[in-house]
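Person: Please work through this fold.
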Amino acid sequence: MTRVKVKSTTVASLGYNAATREMDIEFSNNGDVYRYLDVPEDEYAEFIAAESKGTYLNKIFKPLGHKYLVVRRGSEKE
């Protein structure tokens, strides 16, 4: 999945696949990439538009309880 870099101290990049409703989050601190499942496109749009990606992630997105997979650990090469 293609991700776009975002301006954030918490999130390095975000990606979205509308066909599968999957969203990738790459974290700035360790390079880990998590793939969240069954994410509506408007939710991704709100996330990418949020002024603070870290605040949005922790206060709005995570409480929604989306299932996720670890796509890559920061120590692994992509």
In short: The beta strands are 3-5, 11-17, 22-27, 33-36, 68-72. The mean pLDDT is 94.
